[in-house]
């Protein structure tokens, strides 16, 4: 069998890194498009790096950008890919309210540029295209669970741009008989998740709090619900979609939804910390209410326990006084671990996502290996390890300098 060639846009992102590794293991030659940045931005694929001076490489990177059609056309012409995975996007929903025009250009028109390049280069029969569509298309709740037939109602510039990308993919499939498919992926996370998405923000912050490197974390809307899976499972679905004889659109989800609040509790419980939420809206607080000392010692380490117990005793004495939220503000080392800051609220929110993966289960034979508990465990284990490195550096006197002080 001849070796297949894949082109991944967004190879430096969470999904791009996992997908590149997965396809390389399957024997593909993988080409990736990366943006020029003022610092290295290849952390997620450094372990796959191959010296450009060595012959017969299987991983080849190209500088490029989804906003530059000439560049994309040139790369696609050069690579002649069997499969294109279009994962590149400005993928942060909140940030898309700050950069709506850019998002329309990169996430919306960027998809058109790829489809049109494949068409103009005469590759419509050779090249299969995967478009990274999203559960954000469902936006304002019309029905649950959300399936391939649920109407869209996007609620952010990001989702609106992705809606254009979704339909232009469908249109090129119908108009030019291209093998172009949408994966409507619900939220998927991992230790490689960007630090400003909610799950990773939580697992990083709780790890730092456990090690005494941070006092508390401020969050946005704690009541929204998400259907979270593991990125390692979801990139398998991308691959399966492109192996089908016919192109089509598929929901990839777990079918289980959880609030942000409960995700925080689960992540804390994973390392033996019990967090209880009190108050409402912007006054809501997550308080440390118990420690499973054995679990904490096993997952984090004995030496970090005394400081955390001190915080817990404050929590208990304050709640005995009957007014935790009022008294807490007086303490510099308080028992409050989570707060709410409206700066993280979105102008329009997506309240509830829960996917119906029946079609991908039956047609693709796709089933996730991780459940939410497994995902949380993987992320917490990884972030505790990461933050321990930071802790050791701090103990050794190597603190990150603030050059503006
Ligand atoms: P990330 O934000 O981790 O990665 C995005 C990638 O796109 C990065 O490699 C980034 O490069 C690149 N990129 C951004 N803008 C451009 C541009 N203008 N030109 C070229 N490359 C660009 O996202 P994920 O890996 O989490 O998601 C992958 C795709 O799937 C995205 O399209 C996202 O919108 C979509 N999606 C994600 C879901 C999720 O839960 N993760 C769910 C559903 C859809 P750089 O590293 O330089 O920033
Ligand atoms: P989302 O992911 O918007 O669903 O988009 P994100 O993790 O950013 O938010 C999920 C929910 O958590 C709430 N939230 C917070 N979110 C962030 N980022 N930071 C906070 O402090 C915070 N507090 C509460 C949000 O309001 C929201 O309701 C992700 C991205 O990967 C998209 O690219 C992808 O298309 C969708 O998932 C499916």
TrEMBL record:
* Coiled-coil regions, chain positions: none
Annotated NAD(P)-binding domain ranges read: 7-294, 332-379
- Report the CDD domains cross-referenced here: GDP_MD_SDR_e (cd05260)
GO molecular function (one) = GDP-mannose 4,6-dehydratase activity
Q: Which cofactor does it need?
A: NADP(+)
**Any keyword Isomerase?**
no
Catalytic activity, as annotated: GDP-alpha-D-mannose = GDP-4-dehydro-alpha-D-rhamnose + H2O
- Enzyme class per UniProt: lyase
Instruction: Give one Pfam family, short name only.
Output: GDP_Man_Dehyd
InterPro entries referenced in this protein's UniProt entry, alphabetically: GDP_Man_deHydtase, NAD(P)-bd_dom, NAD(P)-bd_dom_sf
**Alphabetical keyword list:** Lyase, NADP
Protein EC:
4.2.1.47
* Superkingdom classification of source: Bacteria
Query: Which BP terms from GO are recorded?
Result: 'de novo' GDP-L-fucose biosynthetic process
HAMAP family this protein is in? GDP_Man_dehydratase (MF_00955)
State what this protein does: Catalyzes the conversion of GDP-D-mannose to GDP-4-dehydro-6-deoxy-D-mannose.
**Which family does the record assign?**
Belongs to the NAD(P)-dependent epimerase/dehydratase family. GDP-mannose 4,6-dehydratase subfamily.
> What is the protein name given in its UniProt record?
GDP-mannose 4,6-dehydratase
The gene is: gmd
